Amino acid sequence: EARDVAWRILQAHPDFDRGLADQVPENSPEWPMARLIFRESAAWPDTVRSYRDTDPAAWSLYHRGNWHWFNDMVWVSPEAEQALISRVEIDTNQDLPPEGEEPGNAVQAIKWTTMILGDPSASDDERALALAWLLHVGADIHNPVHSVSLFGLPALGNEGDRGGNRICLDDLENWNLHSFWDLQIAGARGEVDIDAVREGLAGELTDDVASTPVGDGSLWWRESVDLARTVVYPRWLRLQAADRIDSDRCDVTSGRIRLVPAYREQARAVSLRQGAKAALRLAAVIEEALGSP
Q1: Which of 31, 145, 228, 273 is a plausible cystine mate for 35, CB 3.0–4.6 Å?
Q2: Three-state DSSP class for 146?
Q3: Is the pLDDT of residue 199 over 90?
Q4: Position 110 pLDDT exceeds 90
Q5: Is-contact 73 158, C-beta < 8 A?
Q6: Residue 248 CA to chain centroid, in angstroms?
Q7: How much is the pTM?
Q8: What does the alpha-carbon distance between residue 152 and residue 163 come to, in Å, rounded to a whole number?
């Protein structure tokens, strides 16, 4: 069974003890340890970020910052797009990299890790790393703020708002728009059971998910781009952002945007639905990749 094969592979993860097993919180749900470690494996690419100061060698070996996102452009206004689009360059390559090269963005990473995971000639430690990254990036790409950046304001320059990281919020828990969206499904303490959400939406989503080719990160990404343009960056937020962009980070002196209740409610609903899609789709990808040991 694919689940058993995945667990066997995951136990070969080169950072298993420190990066996976030791990360399971003491107050975790009463699930089997294998399930808890699977959950931590999906978070491992973020855990690795902390190694930069404590273990630079491991950070250099495992960290891949540009695998977490793949940004299309959202513009403050049609006028800004017309005037400035020729000055902005973004990565548009969604194809697998040539043999011997690593992916350069999230969409490429999904395709590449799926290929490695399903390759029985790859070592188990290679497949374990691929599984952890696939779980993480597959979830990231269903989050709209990992799919776009806002452009068209002088303070944004040519890198945009970096997926909402430079739009500061009047919110004690969420300092910027990116962190607000990142925390919608699980909340700051992981209090929401995504399994329950997925089960509740499974009937509604089955046909929708089934109509998307297994492992097609490009289509998953395009869905998120559409949501970003309509839900993450509505017109009122783009207008308010015009004079409240922080040049580097959100601090006490930054201009802040207050998200209205209707925006928060819609973000919550969209995030839960996207999380359910990610869970169903990634389960199908893993099943297809590991159906045969």
Answers
A1: 31
A2: helix
A3: no
A4: yes
A5: no
A6: 22
A7: 0.89
A8: 14
